[in-house]
Each structure stands twice: as structure tokens, then as C-alpha cells.
Amino acid sequence: MSSVSGGRFDAAWLPVEAFRAVGVRRVGVRGEGGVVESVRREVREVCGWFGGREVGGGEAELVLEVGEVGLGDEEFLFEFDGERAGVRASGGVGLLYGFFHVVRLGEGAFEGPVRSELHSPALPLRMVDHWDNVAVHPVMGQVERGYAGGSVFWADGEARGDFGRVRAYARLLASCGINAVAVNNVNVHAVEARLLTERIGEVAQIAGVLREYGIRTHLSVTFAAPIVLGGLTTADPLDADVREWWAGAVRGVYEAIPDFGGFVVKADSEGQPGPFAYGRSHADGANMLAAALAPYGGTVHWRAFVYDHRQDWRDRTTDRARAAYDHFAPLDGEFAEGAVLQVKHGPMDFQVREPVSPVLGALPRTRFAVEVQATQEYTGQQRHACWLGPMWSEVLTFRPHGEQGPSVGELASELVAVSNVGDDPFWTGHPLAQANLYTFGRLAWQPSADPLDVLDEWLRLTFGDGDLGGLRTLLAGSWAAYEKYTAPLGVGFMVQPGHHYGPSVDGYEYSPWGTYHFADRDGVGVDRSVATGTGYAGQYGPPWASVYESVESCPDELLLFFHHVPYGHVLKSGKTVIQHIYDTHFEGVEEAEEARRVWAGLKGVVDAERFARGAERFEEQVRSAREWRDQVNSYFFRKSGVPDERGRVIY
Ligand code: GCW
């Protein structure tokens, strides 16, 4: 644990030992400027730990050099000539990424064949969005859907004074390639609205620290800002006074933060204000902000999470899953260059299993960002170990137009994660949830990467090369295990309303939120076919529309998302739906128990504080998994009357 004025915190995937290969060597750093100084600081520090030193001239074993190499800002060349290793970049950010590349390679950077490799990020923007409030919200707490304590940025109603911790955070983010941060919640409350104007100085302080690591700062703003901050009577995006007000506000922001990244906007969604109130489209809204940001090169991230959250559960014609596509597909081609449509990876809301959103691939003339949720709102809230690498990778490698077409990762301009970090000493509550943040950054750099390779990287950096028992297997299978003991076959939700932790099968069944499973005595699932259901399946192009349309071709894991089937329906696995529900729920709990056992075996192998924190979380995971198993199994047994083939205990 490191200590700064703001408290103690874990080194996460950058413990001292991870720097040994660099720290024992003679290292030359050539170049000047802000981010180069961060590299120099790193080199001095790690050499201090291991007895290497910073050198000039020809004696270096590792040369980190900024020069005229004709690369993009974030690119770097890694070279090994048989004796010396080197990183060359056009500027400080590329150099920093190259430095962390060498750290990841460890001794491997200084051996093996002679080579010269160009490294470039596949996606130019790799952002984490914090749902942090400045003030503590009466219902949501300080961090909305935060499971790791308070905010890393804000404390006691203002920007934190302890920038040591923000700096350590920036360093962690940069080390896995993240280059943008939105510092406040997309639900913009009264206090936070003012960050845009009179409190921009606090944002500038944070931006100053993030900048040292090549990270640009973004701000969530309220669409109603001209009214709530500017005293205007309207926020109509086509009104001249409104446009002028925004132009002035943006000018003020860039005076304070010259490299400001731009805005994130949640409009006409879950009660947030938006252009619909003025009869304007979301393109009108986004383009107004894009126009205000354009002179400075800023971007507006406009979220596509727009749906009716006051639905009547009796109404079977409205389907929340359809909403984003219905709202945004007709607007393709209407968004300005400086607008990026930020789309949740699935059509609903970060469930453990959803199909890939049909919006991804449906708007060829619109820049879009894929939004994933590192904060584990619906995947165990950082009390359960649930490594999301394979889920995100499935999304990024999905090909919306079939095998011959491009993948989501190739079509997207950006990848965004809702942050899982707070002021907790382990950053993420569950120490193993750090893997999600790391994996996000690395997949944003290279969406086609094998997530298991990323997991290996994270394990090696975090824990070193020692024997970790079954930890890799535990994490690799943790998403699948979580899926087994929670909502079955893609149907989603079944969580307790409000906080969303733990089971409540009918918790949202008769609610206005549009999240239903329609279980009755005969069957379960949502008919989203074109032929007999909501028509959602028809939002996909070929081949997926027809794959999802029919019960026969729909993949098992999404069956109840797309179809309502009888309990006796036989899956491709050969099991009936009801037996699948029983079996997976028993298996899921066994896997949670096995995970707890694996962690117990790491006593004395991982450091004591980390071990204790993990042990406490695995206790809770097992307790909660059993609760899920018993509630889900009992519910479906009571509805269906079908006994478990294997006669296990169901209540
Ligand atoms: O998943 C839901 C969350 C809300 C969140 C919303 C969103 C920030 O329950 O807490 O609000 O998504 O993504 O806007």
C-alpha cells in the first residue's frame, strides 16, 4: 500500500516488483515536455528501487527517446537490437505508452530476436466515465452505482486536495492505455451542473494532474444548463440565445482547460432534460453542442440510452430493447463531425447477457463509441468476482453484418467504460475487480486482443510470476459462473429494485421500467420476433435478424431474450429450459464455492490485506449465489410444477 495525504491505496497492477527489469538497468530518457517528465520521474523512481540509473550517452541499456520519427502522438516504436532495447516516439504520450510496454514485457524486452515493432492504438479515444457526484446524493450516494467508496476526484463538496491519489490513478489509467476521463455523473444534479461554469477551476485542477499522463478531461453537462445556469427561459437547441450561451460557456471552459476533451450528455433519458421538450431531434441537440465545441476541437459524447422509463407493464407493444435503434437509426448522417453517439453495448442495460445492440452497425455515417460498464451494477457489485473481459470481447468481435463484414471493434471510433473506481484502498472494492479496469484499457487499445492474454498480463503484473493456484481459471470462468446463478438464458434483471443487488425474480415484473420476463405456469421469455412479437429481432441486418427470429436458430444463451418458450422446450444443449435453469443454478453455486476455495489457498501467497479483503468478498459471493439459486429455482418450480430430474433440494 502506498500512502498520500488522502489515505492509503494499493499499487494495483503496478507494484514495485513489476518494474524490476527496467529498474536494474541503465536507462536513457531523451526529450522534453510535460509527459516526458512523467516518464523521467518513473525511470528515476524505479531505478532508485532496484539500483539502476538514469544515464545519458551511449551506455544505456534502455533508451526512451522522443524524436522526429513521423509517428502519431500515441504511437511508439519498440526496438531491440540484440543488446539494447529502445522506445521511440514523436512525443511524450507515445513515450509513456512505450515505457509501460517495456514494463509489461519485463525481462522479455531485453532478450529474444532483433526486432522493431510499431505499436498504435486501434481506437483513438479510450475513456472512463465516472458517475461521481460532487455532493453526496441522498439516494445514490456519492458515486452512482459505485461499489468502491466515495469519489477519487471529489470530497467534502469540492475537488479533493490530495492530488497524490489522483496522480496515482492517472498513472494506472495511462499504463493500460486510457486517455480520457469524464469526471462527473451523467445524471447531472444541481451542484454538479455548476462545474461547467463557476466551478470550472476545480475541474481544471483535476485536468492538470490527468494531463501529466496524457489523459484529457471531459465533463458531463445538463442539457438544461442555459436555463439552470444561464437564466434563459429555454434550452431549445435551435434558439439563437441558447447557442450563444453555450458558445460562451465553452469559451470559459477552454480558457481554464486548453486541452479540454468535451462533453458527455444524457438527454431525454430517465428524467434528464433534452431536445424532445422543444420538438427537436437528438441530432439537433448534439449538433448544437458540437458547434460550440468545434472551434476548439472538442467532442460531444451524446448517449443513445434513450427510452421510456414510465412504461405500462400491461402494454405488450412497447419494447424497451427497441428504443435506442428506433430513436437513433433514422438520424444517421445528421450528426456533426464533432458528435459521437455513445451506445451501450446491449439494447437494455448492462445485463450479464444481452445481444449486441443493433445500433452498433446500423448507422454507417455516424461516429459511435461503445459503452461498457466496468462498475458491476448488474454483475455482482464488486462483491462478486466477475471478470468481464470475455463479455466485452464478444461485443467487440461481433460482426453486425455477418462473417464477411467488419467487427464492432473495427466499426467503432471509441470505447468507453463506466468506471468501477472509488476512494477505496483497493480502488475497486473487490481487489479482483481491478482486472476489469485493466482489461478495459487494453481492449480499447486493441479490441481484437484475446482477453485471456490480457488477463495473463494483469496477473503477472499484479502478482508476479509465482504459482497462483487456480486464480486464472477462477477469473476466466467468473462471468460464466455469475450468469449461471442469476437470470437465465438472456432474460435479464430479476434483481432487487432500486439498488439492483441480489435476486428478486418479480422485482421488476410489474414496474414501469420495461424489464420483464413474462414467466407464467407454461413458460418464460420475451417474444421479440417480427412474426409474433415486438419486432426487435428485425432491427438487425442479415444474417442476425433471421438467426434471432427463429427459436431453432437463436443461440441458447439468448433464447429467453428473443423468445417466449414452454418450460419443456429443448435447448441445443439437449436439456429442457426448466432443467437448464435448475442445473445452471446448482452449478453456479458450486463454482462460487470453488472460487472461494481457490482464494483461500492463496493465503500467504498474496499480501495479507488483499487476501483478507478478497476472503470477505468470496464469503458474500457464496452466500448471495445460494440466495439466487434458491429463489430462482423455487420460483420456477412453483410456476411450472416440474420437478428437478435429479431430485435436489428446491424450496
Ligand atoms: O444502468 C442504469 C443505472 C443508472 C444510470 C443509467 C445510465 C447514470 O441504473 O444509475 O444512470 O443506467 O446509464 O444512464
From TrEMBL:
GO annotation, cellular component aspect: extracellular region
Lineage: Bacteria, Bacillati, Actinomycetota, Actinomycetes, Kitasatosporales
Protein name: Alpha-glucuronidase
A molecular function GO annotation: xylan alpha-1,2-glucuronosidase activity
Organism this protein belongs to: Streptomyces roseirectus
TM regions (residue ranges): none
Domain (Glycosyl hydrolase family 67 C-terminal): residue spans on this chain: 428-648
Domain Glycosyl hydrolase family 67 catalytic: 118-427
Xref: SUPFAM superfamilies: (Trans)glycosidases
